Amino acid sequence: MIKISINAQEYISRLLSKKKMNTHIKIFVNNPGTEKASCGIEYIYFKNITSMDKKFKFNNFNVYIKKEDIPFLKKSKIKLVKNNLNFELMLHSPYIRSFKKKRSDLENKILFFIEININPFLLSHGGKLFLKEINKKKEIMIEFQGGCNGCSMVNSTLKNMVEKRLLNNFPQISKVIDVTLHKPNSFSYY
Predict the structure, then answer these.
(1) Over the stretch 130-159, which tens digit does the pLDDT of each residue have?
(2) What is the extent of the structural domain holding 118?
(3) 88/111 same-domain check
(4) Where are the alpha helices (H) located in 70-159, listed in sequence order?
(5) What is d(CA 95, CA 37) in angstroms, rounded to the nearest whole number?
């Protein structure tokens, strides 16, 4: 699935040795299957690992990937490269843009609704809403990005704006679930 060079594995092990015990690596994909697709590597503490993440074992550490992102990371490679005087990890994922998940009519309608009726408001705060999936129970899994990720008002935005609009316009939907791993950062609006 994902290949990590020996040098990169040793480098990751050294980095993790300086972190809290039970810290691992997470590989993530933003906007998979689109021209704006990107991927990255971050630390994840074991308490933040969910049932939506799949574990990949390496010699001295584990890598976690959201199950839904796995097809986009097919044949990915991580290698260690020298950049000026520093070393950095390079993640190459050839399928993050080209893999197209076939979407249902309902997904397409919800995507269009989000782009026209929700994202313009969120964009005014530097945020964006991304539809992750619709499960068999007709629950919508959404992810907040940009200024909404880690914002202290995100629960209010979810309940008072996003959820109300989606449930009012799509009665077949039973629930809206925020699956964002919220981390307050310098981009968080509040």
Answers:
(1) 888 899 999 999 988 888 888 888 888 889
(2) 105-178
(3) no
(4) 105-113, 119-123, 154-157
(5) 10
